[in-house]
Amino acid sequence: MTPSARPQPLRSPEPSRRVLLTTGSSDAHTWNLVHLQLFLEEHGHSVLNLGPCVPEQLLVDTARMTSPDLVVLSSVNGHGHQDGLRAARALRADRKTRTVPMVIGGLLGISPEGAETRTAELLDAGYDEVYADGTPPTALLRRLAGLGGACTGRAAA
């Protein structure tokens, strides 16, 4: 393949956003985080990937320091619901992070039963959107495009 024939990264026509990417404290998976990070970066966004097994206080502290435009919590282990509730409560309890937009997605429960209840609880806890397992990552691009305003991060407000 010649250099001119290489595929070029896709660039979003929207402004670049700062994304804080994480898993819950019980989720040790990394492949999902790497996949999402590369996808978002290829579309022109800046991503800080906290890695697996992120304690809630580390998430809050990092969000306070970085003022992300969006917090994305990805779950693969089936305990995203419990981890997500703790993360949302911690972020929403802090005055500097309570308005940061948050989304969660992936395997949020270990069985399909109760999915609607889990989704409602996560939305009630403060998530702006809950993505079911199998939702394509392009949903994140739509969320980022819909943030509006300057790219300064809402946590600083």
UniProtKB/TrEMBL annotation:
Coiled coil region boundaries: none
Domain B12-binding: residue ranges: 16-151
GO MF term (any one): metal ion binding
Superkingdom, natural source: Bacteria
Protein name as it appears in the record: Glutamate mutase S-chain
